[in-house]
Structures are given as C-alpha cells and as structure tokens.
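seq as requested:
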Amino acid sequence: MEYLICSIIGYCLGCLNTAYFLSKSKGFDIRDRGSGNAGASNVKINLGWKAGVMTAVIDTLKAFLAVLICKNLYPANDVIPFVAGACAIIGHIFPFYMNFKGGKGYACYIGFLLAINWKLALAMILYGVVVTLVSNYIALATISTTIIVAIYYLVMKESTVNIVILLVVSLIIIFKHRINIVRILNHEEIGLRKRG
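struct tokens:
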C-alpha cells in the first residue's frame, strides 16, 4: 500500500505541467510550437528566458517535493524515494489530461536527484550547464546525465531495485529524446541560444 500511495503522490505532482499551463495562459499549446516539447527549453524558445527558468524551477521542485513527502511518510523504506521520484518523472512525461504527451523529464529528474543525493545532483547540474553551453544542446546534457547517474549507482552498489528504477527512468528519458538526437545529427535541432 505504501508503494501505491507514493506512486500516486509522485504521479499527481509530476502531472502538473508548467510549460502547458504557461502556454495556455498565452493562448496556445506549447506542443504546437518550437520543438513540440512541453518543457523548459521549449518554453524558453517561445516565451523567453524568464518563463523558461520558471518552468525549470517548478518542474524540478515537483519531483523534489514528491520524494521529500514520501520520505517523511515512510522514512524506513529506502526504495520509496526512488519510487516517488520515478513516478513524478513519469507523471511529467505522461500526464493523463494531456493525452499522455507531456515533457521529457530532465528538470524532474534533477529534482528527484536533488532529493536523494544533493551532492551528486549539484555535480550533474554543473556538468549539464557546461555540456549545454559548449554544445548548445540541452538534449546532450540530459541523456549523458542519466547515463552517468545510473553508472554511478551501479559502481556504488545501490540496491538492485533502486538501480532498476533508475535504469527504467533513464531509458524512458533517452527514448523521449530520440528525435532530438536525430535532429542534432541532421543539424536541424533548435539550439538553446537560438529563438525558434
């Protein structure tokens, strides 16, 4: 029952898609413009840096809060934070009221990571910023971050269940970015420093 409760908490918080609500307040659906993604980078492209940063912060916080709430509800269960965080990410990517077509989960992933290992999260944020600034593509930072984190926990011998949860989340995020990789290879991806 505790896993079900925390899955619901995580999913419901994850479903609160900031990009979608911001764009709707401006009279359009964010999924119809730019990269078509309901996430912070596409909000930045279409609504500017301020809206993009706000979207990233809120999307990060909702996963962070999901983990924090569930950790406090069930402090003795080391799997619960991973379940709550994973479900928040899944809720962001597959929100029921958006026909399961949400964002790609990077900001939520960072929020999840901040809640379970803030030192690693800060290192990955710094890494992501550097990769993004150098390459101009946040997708490269996203994909490589999930791979590095999964490898880190494998090396640190985290519990098998938690590693499986991390790998599943990583594969979902990477799968959601498959179009970005194709666009980058074809020189068609909209860079973070460009306006689309």
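The chain is about 70% helix and 0% strand.
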